[in-house]
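Section 3.1: Structural characterization of target chains.
Under the original work plan, the team committed to producing a structural model for every single-chain target entering the pipeline before any wet-lab resources were allocated. The record below documents one such target. The sequence was received from the expression subgroup and is listed exactly as submitted; it comprises 127 residues.
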Amino acid sequence: MLLLFGATLGLAAFRLIWGPLDFIAALSPALPPAIYLTGLSLLSGRLTRSYWVAAGVTMIYWFLEIQTRGQVTGALYLFNTAWPSLFVSISFNQGLQIGLGLLFFAINIALSTGRHNSLSRRSFLGR
């Protein structure tokens, strides 16, 4: 929800300053990396139970991507739409980022609901 709110606020500011713009064309290059990094941040925060680690993992990943220009991550290169790779198509790159980001979201939800179910069963059984 915060990601959607931030994107809407940014697009509203763009529209105010520069006039009308194509919503899809403006958002499509940034959305797959945002979904991937958000999923990565949520999952690393869930696994470590530290928002500092979650923020650190995301920022270090982003910084290394800028510095190495995808040499380390290959097909998961975050900035493939801005600086295209000769070896990975943009559509495959974006699909991989969205797929892994959604997988991270799903794992995070599964870990969250699994913990709540075991706690509710424990309290229901009186243990």
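DSSP finds five helices and no strands in the chain.
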